[in-house]
Amino acid sequence: MFNIALFGAGRIGQVHAVNIANHPETNLYSVIDPYLEGAQKLAIQYDAVIQSVEEAMADPAVHGVCIGSATDTHANLIELAAQNGKAIFCEKPIDLDLSRVRDCLAVVKQHNAPMMVGFNRRYDPQFRQVREQLSAGVIGKAESLLITSRDPSPPPAEYSKVSGGMFRDMTIHDLDMARFIIGEDPVSISAHGSCMVDPAIGEAGDIDTAVIVMNFPSGAIATITNSRRSGYGYDQRIELHGEKGLLQAGNVKENLVQHWGEQGCISAKPQHFFLERYQAAYIAEWQRFVDVLAGKCEPECNGYDGEQALVLAEAALEALHSGKTVSL
Amino acid sequence: MFNIALFGAGRIGQVHAVNIANHPETNLYSVIDPYLEGAQKLAIQYDAVIQSVEEAMADPAVHGVCIGSATDTHANLIELAAQNGKAIFCEKPIDLDLSRVRDCLAVVKQHNAPMMVGFNRRYDPQFRQVREQLSAGVIGKAESLLITSRDPSPPPAEYSKVSGGMFRDMTIHDLDMARFIIGEDPVSISAHGSCMVDPAIGEAGDIDTAVIVMNFPSGAIATITNSRRSGYGYDQRIELHGEKGLLQAGNVKENLVQHWGEQGCISAKPQHFFLERYQAAYIAEWQRFVDVLAGKCEPECNGYDGEQALVLAEAALEALHSGKTVSL
Amino acid sequence: MFNIALFGAGRIGQVHAVNIANHPETNLYSVIDPYLEGAQKLAIQYDAVIQSVEEAMADPAVHGVCIGSATDTHANLIELAAQNGKAIFCEKPIDLDLSRVRDCLAVVKQHNAPMMVGFNRRYDPQFRQVREQLSAGVIGKAESLLITSRDPSPPPAEYSKVSGGMFRDMTIHDLDMARFIIGEDPVSISAHGSCMVDPAIGEAGDIDTAVIVMNFPSGAIATITNSRRSGYGYDQRIELHGEKGLLQAGNVKENLVQHWGEQGCISAKPQHFFLERYQAAYIAEWQRFVDVLAGKCEPECNGYDGEQALVLAEAALEALHSGKTVSL
Amino acid sequence: MFNIALFGAGRIGQVHAVNIANHPETNLYSVIDPYLEGAQKLAIQYDAVIQSVEEAMADPAVHGVCIGSATDTHANLIELAAQNGKAIFCEKPIDLDLSRVRDCLAVVKQHNAPMMVGFNRRYDPQFRQVREQLSAGVIGKAESLLITSRDPSPPPAEYSKVSGGMFRDMTIHDLDMARFIIGEDPVSISAHGSCMVDPAIGEAGDIDTAVIVMNFPSGAIATITNSRRSGYGYDQRIELHGEKGLLQAGNVKENLVQHWGEQGCISAKPQHFFLERYQAAYIAEWQRFVDVLAGKCEPECNGYDGEQALVLAEAALEALHSGKTVSL
């Protein structure tokens, strides 16, 4: 049984808390959050203790840390955990600043700390099935990947600033997905964007509608279509074209009931947002981290992956502003 | 080029007129209808002559007849055509009275007249595909057939009388379809019905909602589900379960566009009624009759098929009233 | 927190064990099984004790019993639990003999014991959605219900005897589903069956392919299509036609990935069998029992429902053998 | 009745011949093709005469011309037809050279000749439905369009030269589709391509896999995904995202039968290629030209549209080679 210290008792912290507690090999040992009321609620619910950052890091009973706190605390907590010999699971991003990310990863490397970055979609059973069928040769060599990712509704315009903007916050998942599916690092990237959903987002210097295209060494091309508002729930699909055919992973609907009537045939919307759609992914992701803790396997989505996704987000931003394809 | 005399210039006559005229090997030679205005309209449109029944039957230029007139004229016209050496295409039913049907078929047999009965659905590309995949062994031996057949909206209650009631008028197509798919004559039939759609239909002694079950010599079971009103267009589906799997032929929709929005995912209704849904079937059916005219093949849906469908409709009626399975 | 004594450590007992343990308001207190090794395995896994039937029934710490033992033990255990003031959750059937069921329910009634019978499919999110949309008036009045239920592969022929045959073992779920969806007790039933899958099943006096039709007081008709072998996984669908349209609950597939290639478009099979397909249903069912334990609601699927499903299974058997519709 | 002179008796000429002959208001009057055998075959089949270019242009009985001959004859024939007062239907492209196109259109304008360019996909019932639902406000303002267009298999490498390359030959349809759906001329275009399907195509200086992105004045973004080989038939889909939701027009399959079996659920491939998929589109396109001939409406897809599609194809080529977004 591995004892886990959970940093952050907010929305994503609560997702991890359930999964840590339900997993037969992990124990939610402690909760750390400057907002004490939130920490207490989780601690009581799962019979955990409350600790300070220092206590948790120094506590020899803690085997691993799960970092789901505010983005600007990630890099520090990672470094402390690495220095204290804890296995590290950290929500994306490591940091919004690339040089800070690199410094942090150097510390992780120096202490040889096992570290996994939370690109949860890699563990979505649908997307993983696409990756596995590609590996099994079902469609031959990958040629063209299309990732559709649309949020149900836009965040407040001010969120653009704290989140680092659409590419660093939202598209970063799709950039990682492209690397995961194609299995290569891209050689170039271009980006197109506009502000169609909320003018306030544009005034804040961000976009809400985008298309990003990447070329890969094998010749494969990946296209990402993003919007901050779908109008029909969380739109999360991928489509991979290869030598011998196509693999499509469609949306997961709220239910499978169809109603035929005057209006036609109506079926349910996609599951509303990431908490619903990626529930199974979060569980599978945690299983992977437990396997890392147990020494059964390497982290699949590691610091390098976290760094590369940010590298691509920054290059996409440069391409958007310059109107030129950026070489990587 | 075969010259065709068309009996009946109403709705179904017009369907056949187009197909006769468009087929490169048939010519719409004459139109016969006591309602002269209708006959004239068709005759002008397709450059045909107007004839009386006697003229058409006596005219040596007429190679084949297409009978789409009122039901109670079918048997007479068939007999006249057989006696005059014409090839016969007749819309279902031959007659609503079984002994009349048998007398008529005896005349057809005596004159060795090629005759095809218009169970158009046998020529629907979807249903035929099911039959062909069964023949090709795709699902092994047939075990359980489900036919769903629902009209978009009920006929006037008084139509129950002239049509011979739901089983003789509507279900008869499904009874023929079961024989066509399974490829056997059933050994028993049972029926269940109620009047759910329009009380006036019940007052006229008919039903509007029904389930019919047939057992076949091979052990296969066929189930027919009928309603006089769907609420969503013309519902025409079949599902065939066999040793090694299932074949499903779904509805043909008005278009293939899907709209994802607040309400969910909406796609179009099934094509409205038989003129739309079975347009391709009517064309393929006519092609088959042309092949019969050309001596290339036997009528696939012949007098025996017409008789058997009526036998089953009557047995279903008996089963409905007695609450007992009727042996055939 | 309610303490639960689990009777039966076999396949279905293990399903309940997980759900009891994972539910925040129930505790897997004890396991009872004459096969001690199985009981021990479960007890260790969930930190429960092993008890004899007598110990569990006499133990005041036990709030409720979950009966998942062999069918012929159900009625006795129910009576003992009722006499000892425990809330009762029992897998279907109560007993294969109707008079034994009635005696047992009399005891339950006498002691006013809360009792729920495990017709798990009522809690399937898809089927429940159909029931709820019907209640919400989405399709108006129910007119025709179709239940498709096919197992992936047949049981051994000898199972026919211990299980009471296909109708009492398998169809009984569909008979209950029809009552659940339509919300009435049927007035008549007829049945058609054959042995298409395995001749040994026929030699054992049972069937493996069936169609059952029921009429309800409202005029609604329900049709059940059963097979002991699908060839494509567990086929569990319902289709409800009403005044204003149709509701369809399709199969839950193993995944949502489609592969387009030379052969066409291939998507995954339905989930293999009941453990996969009804996983969510078992959890929801247990939630309902917890609500009953907490006094928040009445058992939704009670002794009467258990009795009626068996009454229908026996009437279906009579109808099958007599070839007559049986009035209820 | 309008008399039509058909230029070109090859594959596309034969498509138009049937539609001209079947339309109640047009008559296939003459066929013109330097390959006399082909011209004769068509002429006999449809009871038309054979003419030389000069004869047809000079013949006052000819009301309209249908140009389906080799690409390098289009511009000349258009000019001759305009000078001789014929209504013009011409297959795309007008010419592969933009200045030749402009000269040709100047002649058409000078003679005020009605002219329609054959971008047949505009008349596909599925795509038109998307355009109409957009116009009807179903999804609000258009924001992001995705056009998927993949041929079933690549042309011979040498075809790259005569066809002007993938963008001028294949993508040109998608460029026109984007203008048709969005209803604006784009302000910029970028392009990405590689040679994944056949190295000989790359050696011939062309590509076979591409992604093109266009920005429109309204802020809308259109993305085109192309491949010269699908592996599963002709892949022709569009997906339009707007303020209030999504419209998807999927592929038209060869049939609607699904087979559930050991492998999963298999449905048919998309219709094989353009002759099958766009059969209805060609008929609707011809109906539009007849309406133009009858003076009922303006050409919907005119010389300007033909020119603009080529402008976009050339700009895409420039963008591909420069790695820069090209402003228009």
Give the arrangement of secondary structure elements.
4 copies of one chain form a homotetramer.
Chain A: E1 2-7, H1 11-22, E2 26-32, H2 36-46, E3 49-50, H3 53-58, E4 64-67, H4 74-83, E5 87-91, H5 98-110, E6 115-118, H6 125-135, E7 142-150, H7 159-163, H8 166-182, E8 188-194, H9 199-203, E9 209-215, E10 221-227, E11 235-242, E12 245-249, E13 257-261, E14 264-267, H10 274-277, H11 279-293, H12 303-322, E15 326-327
Pfam families (chains A, B, C, D): GFO_IDH_MocA, GFO_IDH_MocA_C3
Family (chains A, B, C, D): Belongs to the Gfo/Idh/MocA family.
Domain Gfo/Idh/MocA-like oxidoreductase N-terminal (chains A, B, C, D): 2-119
Task: Explain the overall architecture.
Four copies of one chain form a homotetramer. Chain A is of the alpha/beta class and 328 residues long. Chain A folds into two domains: 2-113, Rossmann fold; 125-327, 2-Layer Sandwich (Dihydrodipicolinate Reductase, domain 2), CATH 3.30.360.10. Chain A is built from twelve helices and 15 strands. In chain A, strand 13 (257-261) and strand 14 (264-267) form a beta hairpin. The relative contact order of chain A is 0.15. The mean pLDDT of chain A is 96. Chains in contact: A-B, A-C, A-D, B-C, B-D, C-D.
Provide a quick synopsis of the model:
4 copies of one chain form a homotetramer. Chain A has 328 residues and is α/β, with parallel strands linked by helices.
Count of extended strands of chain A: 15
Q: What is the radius of gyration of chain A computed over CA atoms, rounded to a whole number of angstroms? A: 20 Å
CATH C-level class of the largest domain in chain A is: Alpha Beta
| CATH fold category name of the largest domain in chain A | Dihydrodipicolinate Reductase, domain 2
Protein name (chains A, B, C, D): Inositol 2-dehydrogenase
Organism (chains A, B, C, D): Photobacterium proteolyticum
Domain GFO/IDH/MocA-like oxidoreductase (chains A, B, C, D): 127-247
Family (chains A, B, C, D): Belongs to the Gfo/Idh/MocA family.
